[in-house]
Design a protein that fits this description.
The protein has 483 residues and is an alpha/beta fold.
């Protein structure tokens, strides 16, 4: 495995990237480990770094010391980061200058150095040989390795998900028959390591021996530059990233094998357009709790199943608890060795969500006659207005089917008369705007009276989280401000 790392101000090696073989990079980590004073009785250590290279360096340091990384989004406020650290009882952090400033007064923050542009200082042949052996998945991630990643929900405090090496290896092996990993592959680090999709890129690259390209940052221009500099074969994107590539005319690398598209729902037109443009886009379904994706819609199946999330991977069983629902719609439940054992310090919620090794996702969906999974919404997003149950996806689908709407999000707002009312945010396609009264007439073609939104807010851009999901907290604030 080779790593190609680009950092601001560093111009070294191939196309401005510093090149490391994994043994040499790990030797560098071993050499600086001696200066780290990590408490021996603290198993979990947090990583709070803004740059990808600092995040990578921190991961490798903790792996070499046998510590368990706890990933924290550096963009979070001091209060948010503190609440997450407290929830998993972490006291020590590997961080950058920003983390020192933000959290140094309350936590033991150790400044981490990026390996980019630094030559390997280790001259000890015995150590070099030992670390050379460590350049395998069994030593890079020890058998007792575990990490903590927080769910990237659209609202509420994220939950701490514990993932073991066994979970991560199961996810890798489940996807192997589809992705067919090879040492000749080049993976581009398109997402931060503190999300499961981003961490999975690193894990798959090390497990397969593939090369990993670390761009300077995750800006569209930096990703495009990396795709021109290296024969990239695999990328993992959220829909927003792919949409920007298409809008800016960024061409798919001729070497691309897979564009894994997840993190948030993807519109069928976006996927279709990207496939035509050569991106080999595959919609994936999964979560932090399942160690990344458990189902995939391959590009060749998209035309026939555009609204599907694909078929389950090998080693994954997907059940739908339909109960007495006549349409076969119910909660999606995942069974696989890749499923986490539960949330840390949230025993009651873990008991509800993780039952007999199965993960109850809280997602609503169904499996069609051909075995394709269709995800249509969330159980906890069901709106009850005047005693009638309304699924947000039904309203969102009606809006999209008008052909005028680029994106739509539906949520509930508390109401004294109705209990809850349907609130709908709409972003029109360019040049397709129309008066509210006319738009409501189009919605009535598909919606019953009780399903009609009592409040519609028209936006120029939908608020989204870092992973491309609708930011429901900000959306509710927009509805309140539109009164």
């Amino acid at each position: 495995m080779k790593l190609f790392i680009k950092q601001a101000g560093v111009l070294d090696g191939n196309n401005g990237y510093s090149e490391f073989a994994l043994p040499a990079l790990l030797r560098y980590q071993y050499a600086i480990d001696a200066s780290f004073k990590l408490p021996a009785n603290e198993q979990r250590v947090a990583i709070v770094c803004d740059s990808l290279s600092d995040q990578l360096s921190s991961i490798l340091i903790l792996c070499s010391l046998g510590k368990h990384p706890v990933f924290i989004n550096p963009a979070l406020s001091t209060a948010q980061a503190g609440a997450m650290l407290e929830s998993v009882s972490v006291k020590t952090i590997l961080g950058d200058e920003s983390a020192v400033t933000k959290l140094g007064a309350r936590y033991n923050v150790i400044r981490v150095s990026s390996p980019a542009g630094i030559t390997d200082p280790c001259q000890n042949e015995e150590t070099a040989e030992a670390v050379s052996v460590a350049a395998t998945i069994d030593r890079s991630f020890r058998d007792d390795f575990a990490c903590v990643l927080f769910t990237s929900g659209s609202s509420g405090l994220p939950k701490a998900v514990l993932l073991t090496k066994q979970n991560l290896m199961a996810a890798y092996n489940n996807s192997l028959p589809v992705l067919k990993y090879s040492e000749a592959d080049y993976w581009l680090q398109t997402l931060p390591f503190y999300h499961i999709s981003g961490f999975s890129i690193l894990f798959r690259a090390i497990a397969s021996g593939a090369s990993l390209v670390i761009p300077q940052d995750l800006q569209t221009t930096s990703l495009a530059e990396a795709m021109k500099a290296f024969p990239i074969s695999h990328v993992s994107l959220v829909p927003t990233q792919l949409k920007r590539f298409l809008e800016q005319g960024i061409e798919a690398p001729q070497t691309i094998k897979w564009t894994l598209l997840g993190g948030a729902p993807s519109s069928s037109p976006l996927v279709a357009d990207s496939i035509k443009a050569g991106w080999r886009s595959a919609k994936v379904y999964g979560s932090t709790e399942t160690s990344a994706f458990v189902a995939v819609l391959q590009p060749e199946d998209h035309e026939q199943k555009p609204n599907s999330s694909g078929r389950p991977l090998t080693g994954v069983v997907i059940d739908v608890l339909t109960a007495a629902d006549p349409d076969g719609i119910g909660e999606i439940v995942i069974s696989s060795a890749s499923v986490s054992s539960g949330y840390l310090n949230a025993d009651e919620e873990s008991k509800q969500k993780f039952v007999d090794g199965k993960y109850h996702t809280g997602d609503l969906g169904f499996t069609d006659a051909d075995g394709f999974l269709h995800v249509i919404g969330r159980i906890d997003q069901t709106i009850i207005s005047g005693g009638e149950k309304i699924q947000p996806f039904e309203v969102e689908r009606a809006a999209i089917n008008t052909g005028l709407v680029e994106s739509c999000a539906v949520t509930a707002i508390a109401d004294e008369e109705w209990g809850e009312i349907v609130a709908c945010a709409v972003v029109f396609k360019q040049g397709k705007q129309m008066p509210d009264s006319e738009f409501r007439k189009l919605l009535k073609v598909e919606l019953a009276g009780f399903q009609m939104p009592k409040k519609i807010t028209y936006l120029e851009m939908m608020p989204i989280t870092e992973t491309g999901k609708i930011d429901k907290t900000e959306l509710l604030e927009l509805f309140r401000n539109s009164d």
